[in-house]
Amino acid sequence: MLAGLPSLTPAACLRPAEPERLPTGLPQFDRLTGGLPCGAITELSGPACSGRTSLILTTLAAATARRQICALVDATDAFDPSSAAAAGLDPDRLLWVRCGGDPERALKAADRVVNAGGFGLIVVDLADIAPRILRRIPLVCWFRLRRAVEGTPAVLLVVTPQPSTGTCASLLVEMKGGHTHWSGAPNARLLQGGVFELLPRKPIRPETARLQSRAQWMR
Amino acid sequence: MFACLHVPGLPVSRQAVLLECAATFSPRLEQTAPETVTLDMRGLEKLFGSPQRLAGRLARRAATLGLEARIAVAADPDTALLAARGLPGVTVVPPGCEAEVLAPLPVEVLDAPPEVADTLCLWGIRTLEELAALPEKGLAERLGTEGVRWQRLARGKAHRSLTPIERPAVFEEALELEHPVALLEPLLFLLARLINRLCEQLRAHALAAIELHLRLRLEDGGEHARAYRLPVPMRAPRAWLKLCQLDLEAHPPHAPVNAIRLSAQPAAPRSVQHGLFLPLTPDPEKLELTLARLTALVGEDRAGAAELLDTHRPDAFRLRRFAPPEPHRPSVARRAGGVTLALRLFRPPLPARVEAPDGRPRVVLAQGVHGRVVELAGPWRVSGDWWRAEAYAREEFDVALSGGGLYRIYRDLIRNGWFIAGSYD
């Protein structure tokens, strides 16, 4: 009697469609994670000097090169336009929102930008906010942001010193500072660049990747 | 089809009313004389019906405005003009019957120069019918080409194009209040009415607004004026109202409001052809609202596009209004290949205690940053603007600290202190 019916799949086995991925322009990162998921939150966490800013500027430069409109919600006014220019970013396609060190204001601003629509990549930079303050952000704020970005082609990239978005992030990558490269004699040294380590935490994977960065005067 | 409204003895103060009356029927108007307006009604037959119905509607509208107008509708503007000048009430000249209708009219309706009128009088020509019957060649020999033109007018066979007037488009709405309004909410309620009316006016002219000017007359006799420059021509009442609300919340008037005046600078509406393969961009109207909301949230000049200034001064930039380019415009972004080591700035720079016995930092101590210097590059000397009060001179170092971390620190040679400019991240 059931022979004529199509095969049925239990609901528990259904998987949501794989979201579209936005390439970061870094082959190591894209190989490791498959790119940044659209319509979802990606969290990039790591301590100071672990390469988070270098990575987001490279990602923003790649997005603006694809003519996407991007936004940077900067909680602590740490964005350096000179570094962005050195990374090749198109400044006309980047909306910079300076929040003056207030994470609550930054989250509100991120909410406004996400709801405006049309932005391809939205970066919320909370990297210099103390972890104890970040822990006070209720989880509902992250759920609200996740709900706002769901179903849109936008990538919401949150940069934190410690994982803070809980279950709301679809992709969580931890960064670690490696060693730095210097050249020259002991009394005439020159910073050449650094190496950073990428560790995917969600979904967790055994492999890691290394990012080689070069100082802007070495390019 | 052309219509003519002629109001004999119209005072100068009522001429604008006559134009306003005509403008409600056709956008192409010619002010043929101070008391005469000719309307081009071609293409409007489906809107106003037959010539008889049009003439009736014109007459009713003129009567409503208190104008005792003579109205004529004809196939050409000159016939309509002569009929309106010469015949009282409403006249509809059927096509092909122009000469018959014009025949009994006196030659004075031609408005010819007095010497020509005297000549015609000497010849015994009193009506247009008599003028039309004169031999054309003889008339040309005696009165020249103008004489021939008058004869064609009398025969109803003249053809000319209208010279439409360019009416200056003024889009302004005002409201006088019986009682002063002190709260923002009732003020916005009233403002919404003005905005809706203004948008309707713009819609009627197929225009949008590129700039809004809001002037509030205050109870203390002062005026509170605000101007909103829109990035693209807009005609969205809700967006306008929200812009006004956000701006008035940030810049409230200092006294209750007695009168509101809102004007719009018109512009052609935006028309954009989107591409299938172009990246998504924010809708300009929503983007403008978002920018206004962000400004209200983070403050003036704290949201926009960063522009580097042409100077060697460290951290020299300005934030300009964010207006993303059209998606089809190529990006100026260039792929540097790989990752460029970026600097995170401390704004303001972090004051630090630095042990530098020989001028080269050995130990750095600051809030959240401390350690022995294990690697050092520098000093890189930067100075400039020495002729100004805001001169700068500093020695910069790139340092790696023993506790981990890579920083740019500098010694301010003017303030004679050490600071941490930022961290390499």
Q: How would the global form of chain B be characterised?
A: elongated
**Helical content band of chain A:** 25-40%
Beginning-to-end CA distance, first to last residue of chain B: 76 Å
Largest interface, with Cβ-Cβ < 8 Å? A-B, 76 and 61 residues
Strand tally of chain A is: 10
What share of the residues of chain B lie within helices?
25-40%
Order of helices and strands of chain B: EHEEHHEHEHHHHEHEEHEHEEEEEEEEE
For the largest sheet of chain B, list the strands in their spatial order: 13-14-15-16-17-18
- Which residues of chain A sit in consecutive blocks of at least 5 with pLDDT less than 50? none
Q: Would you list the SSEs of chain A in sequence order as H and E? A: EHEEHEHEHEHHEEEE
What is the multimeric organization of the chains shown? heterodimer
Q: Main sheet of chain B?
A: 6 strands, antiparallel, barrel
The helix count of chain A comes to: 6
What profile does the largest beta sheet of chain A have?
8 strands, mixed
Structural class of chain B: alpha+beta
Average pLDDT of chain B works out at: 89
